Amino acid sequence: MAIIQVRVDDELKKEATEIYENLGLDLSTAVRMFLKRSIIEGGIPFATRYDEVTLKAIKATKEMQQISKENGNCNMTLDEINEEIRLGRLEREEKKKKQ
Which of 25, 62, 68, 74 sits CB 3.0–4.6 Å from 20 for a disulfide? Predict the structure, then answer.
């Protein structure tokens, strides 16, 4: 069994680890999956260029992240987000009833 060491920015590792944990994977498993898929594809297993739609999506995501930080809700848990949605729906229903 071989060991691969890779140096990455702490924030990159943190964000990637969080994504993979949410998918039920650890970082090592995700890297092995990437390597195996690379073999199957015969190269990098995803497009390595941005099209116009992707660039717009990235820009929109960054804008939403900034707005979230400014509003102080960028670290909400999924449960907190779902509760906000539930409360918003209740508020909307109450407004409809009053009309």
Answer: 25
8 Å CB contact between 69 and 61? no
pLDDT digits (tens, 9 = 90+) for 12-67: 999 999 999 988 999 999 999 999 999 999 999 987 777 888 889 889 999 999 99
Sign of CA dihedral 50, 51, 57, 63: positive
For 96, other C-beta atoms within 10 Å of its C-beta total 8
Residue ranges of domains in the chain:
7-48, 49-99
CA nearest neighbour of 28 among 47, 40, 13, 41: 13
Whole-model pTM over 0.85: no
